[in-house]
Design goal:
2 domains, single chain, alpha+beta, four-stranded antiparallel sheet, 432 residues
Length: 432
Amino acid sequence: MTINESRTFDGPLAETASVEATLLDQVRAVVAEVLTIEGETEISRFENYAISFQGRLSIAPGEAFTRLSAALEPLGFTPFLQRERGADVVLAVQGLLGTPDEETGGGLLRRLARASGRSPVWLHVALLLATIATTIYAGAFLLQTGGTASLGQILAAGGPFALTLLLILGVHEMGHYVAARYHRVKVTLPYFIPLPIPGSLGTLGATIFIRSPLQTRRVLFDVGISGPLAGLAVALPLFVIGLLLPPIEFGAPITMSFRGVGTPPLLDWLGSLVVTEGSLSRAILLHPVALAAWFGVLLTALNLLPLGQFDGGHVAYALVGRLAWGLAGATFFALALGGLLLWPTWLIWAFLASLTGLRHPPPHDDITPLDLRRKVVGWLTVLVFALIIMPQPIIARQGLLPSNNSNAVPLPTIAPLAIPTAQPFVIPDSPQ
């Protein structure tokens, strides 16, 4: 029996590891209304007293969880509904649901979540303005060479890039926010993270903090999938619009280490409807809106990786339950291997996944399955993920490109420097 190590239970700690017999009898009586009890075990998790009841549910899992929550909370207990070794399990944990504000300890993520609840609105606005500035500079840097561009040129290239990218990120996070508020889950406003480093995107993305547990698979699914779908609904049209707009050229839109971008099947198909001549990779690099939308699609694909607390981890667990744990391990191994062979940045994403744990925590009601409509949307999203993921998003060296394919469309390259060479000294023939 496991209560997730990331603490889906957020209630205040019990002072002792026991409860009065009369209170325990009341808890047992409540559980017996929905479960034919075949066994029980007293346990302690995270210093909280808990009792596990094993047996068979006598009513539907969703209804059972609702009735358990309503009856056990007045007694000071939080229910968890799980299935172990073919048996239905009701786990009653002493303590009520809380927010990170009610805790004093916890790891780095818990401390960040606690601090997020006290952040003023002006902080969110200030971070957004700072991120706009850094992404404008980043867009201009990616689309130009050298440092001779004027302020107008920087704004012309970096402005559309920044607004496109931040619109996609913002809609993504607001998708999570709206879904969380719909299900009455406590959540913060989005935090945009500026990254003033040349050669980067100018941002580490945006994030929101979920400040109360996602109690059912339905809530877990809705909150997890809403962000990627909302962001993708904006990114794909902007990708096509960017390719239709006139290109902006202030110089070679690549650097010595940046030779081109990959095009996954979905973008390759959309691009073929617009770009009928030349390289699609070249067309993407020539316009800031198309390039920013391409990055938006890439970030959506990365978020959909079935890992731990990633959006894809939420969706995978909601769809297949604890089978998602094995899928996360396989994905982590694939990222590590891809980082060594294809794209070093895969190693960074593997590291980020390891920080939050590869195993997604079970929701409080871990038995009630998704309805058919959500299952269909979920598996269609898996298909979309397969169509937008790129094994090698950034082509960094010409040597990685297939050189023996005469039909391959050449990617843009930088013209070699015209360095004059000395003519060899030739001794004239002696006269006859």
